[in-house]
Amino acid sequence: MTKFNIAGFALFFQLATCMADTPHSALEILGFDPAVRAQDDLFVAANGGWLKATEIPADKSAAYGFDLPDITAGRVRSIVEDLASKPQQAASAEQKVGEFYASYLNTAAIDQAGLTPVQAMLTEIDAIKNRKELAYWQGRMQGRIETPLWLRVFPDFKNPGINEVMTWQGGLGLPDRDYYLNQKDPRLVKAHAAYQTYLAKLASLAGIPHADAVAQRVIRLEQRIAQSHWAQADTNDPSKISHPMTLQKLITSAPGFDWQAFFQGANLADVKQINVTQLNTATTIAALFAEIPLDDWKLYFKLRSLDEAAPVLPTAFRAAHFVYRGTALQGITIEPARWQQSIDALNTALGEEVGQLYVARYFPEEQKNRMLTMVNNLLAAYRESIKNLSWMTPATKVLALDKLAKIKSKIGYPDHWRDYSNLQIDASDAVGNRHRSARFEWEYQAAKVDHKVDHDEWMMTAQTVDAYYDPMGNEIIFPAGHLQAPYFDMNADDAVNYGAIGSMIGHEISHGFDSQGSQFDGDGVMRDWWSAADHQAFEELTAKLVAQYDAEEALPGKHVDGKLTLNENIADLSGLQVAYLAYQNSLGGKPAALIDGYTGEQRFFLSYAQSWRSKVREQMQLQWLTTDPHAPHKFRANDPARNTDSFHAAFATKPGDRMYKPENERIHIW
Fold first, then answer.
1. Which residue stretches of 517-587 are H helix?
2. Strand pairing partners for 80?
3. Where is the signal peptide (predicted)?
4. Which of 104, 136, 147, 163 could be stapled to 448 by a disulfide with Cβ–Cβ 3.0 to 4.6 Å?
5. Pairwise CA distance, residues 37 & 44, whole Å
């Protein structure tokens, strides 16, 4: 993924093997489907047996062949419960972690407290007398709830050494504007109705009179907000979301909202520059604040606040929250175990405290060193690939190689850990812990504005199962949580590791050169360093990729959005192709052994397909198709392989095979 919702090396390195005398592929062969050939459907060939045998658990929106988030959550749980088994030093990190977790688990205390923990907030909203106070209150809520215009802190696109604040569209209780605006898809209409029911339930439980009418008023307000929102694909283009201006310019450009009060409430009264990302959205929503009655806004924010706090409110609130956000939006029929919810909340509130404990127990140094070797090999393979590009002009290749050489890699965990000593945690106050930690995080972010970027900081915790590329830092980040088997297996043969984690490394490097990353140079400065000929050639190639994914039907009548998913599809394609090159280079000219009846080349692609092993509920798939810049996993496995010459060579595909694609139609970008 690219970090916007996301050191180069010239020498080749060969991986040192960590295998036993008998070669071990680490492919999960029992999950294959022997009745399906890779030449016809690589994803099903590698995963069909598992797909047939697997039912999605009732408390999950999806099932994964290798559920690293669940594995990692279980590891964090063991750490936290070890802490709870013995006394901890007062105000220490260990005590805070244990007490936050305990407060979330103590549903009896949560039930007994009733609405008391949020009553002061509801009273505050009731007491708002004018639109200036409403704007100020929204500033104070930054970090806690997503207001219609909310704030993020990011490096300045043009001066990436300095942090700036940016506005972003938000404020919707449904996942995306399409859920409000698309009246033709019955699945979206059904979700919309479930949301209105949920809002009425929240109002009723909170004792707000005329609950059904209140829900209708709030839905109508959100409908107006949704009409102003950009499509998801447009928000992913840095060139479209760069509108830096002073506070005074913003006040003039988007009248109707008290921006000054808003920024005062957000601890940013002296802000020098604001990047107003979706400028026309900000202008429209600012006008809505002047137009829509104050009482409607107050009802809207009451329900948004209750929705945000519902996981730590009494049973009836938690149940209503699950019926909507779990069942209606994700298809889950049983609520996840409370301990799992507690771990998720803990990782959000005290992520680096937990991460420090996690890596000490679960991430040995040798894993980091082997991962760095693979990263170096991928960077070297990209250098070779860029030099041999046919579509890029020679002058731009020089700049591309310069950017590649400047890519930095961060593996496992940060060099310096966050300080949470000023965050107050109380084992008997789940709501307070949730809100204090949210405000603590926002104040931490706000303090960065107009100051130098800390290049040692990570945007993910060490226990996160994910990875990202940061275009302003020109760096790739792989947290320890993702560096586990089968994606990264110290005991697996190189073909399997390159197919799984190698393709992901290549994926993240590719983001430096996709339609987002290509707008930033090697120093992270947003500027156009491509020629007109490069842009034209790139757009012709990527238009073919958009068309390929547009044709993929993920649900009946619902296709992948090739434009929304373009950058991730570029990265999947490039990551796979360059990882294969790196794997071949790692062999040093020697043939790979035949293991489990498969050549090294075949194991590489089977491992890649196996890394996408999953089943997803229709409701969750619908949400992802609407909002997620990634394609569904089956297409992430098959479509890049279909465009890769080495896949066709490895499995000797021929016309008539469903995976076959004529050589002159295969797409190669990096």
1. 532-550, 566-586
2. none
3. 1-20
4. 163
5. 8
Q: Hey, what domains does the chain have and what are their CATH numbers? A: 29-74+366-416+455-665 (3.40.390.10), 131-293 (1.10.1380.10)
Query: DSSP secondary-structure letter at 611?
Result: T
Characterize the bridge pairing of strands 163-169 and 274-276.
Answer: parallel
Read off φ and ψ for residue 555, nearest 5 degrees: -135, 160
Q: d(Cα 19, Cα 490) in Å, to the nearest integer?
A: 8
Structure tokens at 169: 């569209």
* Buried-state track 34-69, b at ≥16 Cβ within 10 A, e below 16: eebbbbbbbbbbbbbbbbeebebeeebbbbbbbbbb
Dist CA 443 CA 472 (whole Å):
22
CB 385 within 8 A of CB 585: no
Q: Read off the pLDDT band of 489 (50, 70, 90).
A: confident
Q: Give the phi and the psi of residue 64 in degrees, each rounded to 5.
A: -125, 145
The reported pLDDT for the residue numbered 67 is 85
- Crossing angle, helix 116-127 and helix 294-309, to 10 degrees? 160
Task: Write b or e for each residue in 352-376: b if 16 or more Cβ atoms lie within 10 A of its Cβ, otherwise e.
Answer: bbbbbbbbeebbeeebbebbbebbb
Residue 104 has pLDDT above 90, yes or no: yes
Kind plus residue range of the DSSP H or E element containing 256: none
Q: What is the mean pLDDT of residues 514-523?
A: 92
Q: Phi and psi of 85, rounded to 5°?
A: -80, -10
Instruction: Please give the Cα distance from 96 to 81 (Å, whole number).
Output: 13
| Beta carbons of 376 and 411 less than 8 angstroms apart | no
Rg (CA), the chain: 25
Pull the structure tokens for residue 362. 């679960």
Taking only the tens place, the pLDDT of each residue in 403-450 is 999 999 999 999 999 999 999 999 999 999 999 999 999 999 999 999
Phi, psi (rounded to 5 degrees) for 360: -65, -30
339-381 pLDDT, tens digit each: 999 999 999 999 999 999 999 999 988 889 889 999 999 999 9
Identity at 552, one-letter amino acid code: E
Cα separation, 493 vs 495, in Å, equals: 6
- Is residue 252 a contact partner of residue 140, using CB atoms and an 8 Å limit? no
Asked whether the beta carbons of 266 and 151 are under 8 A apart, the reply is yes
The DSSP secondary structure of 90-125, one letter per residue, reads: TT-HHHHHHHHHHHHH-HHHHHHHTTHHHHHHHHHH
User: Any alpha helices (H) in 3-115, and if so which ranges?
Assistant: 42-53, 68-84, 93-105, 107-113
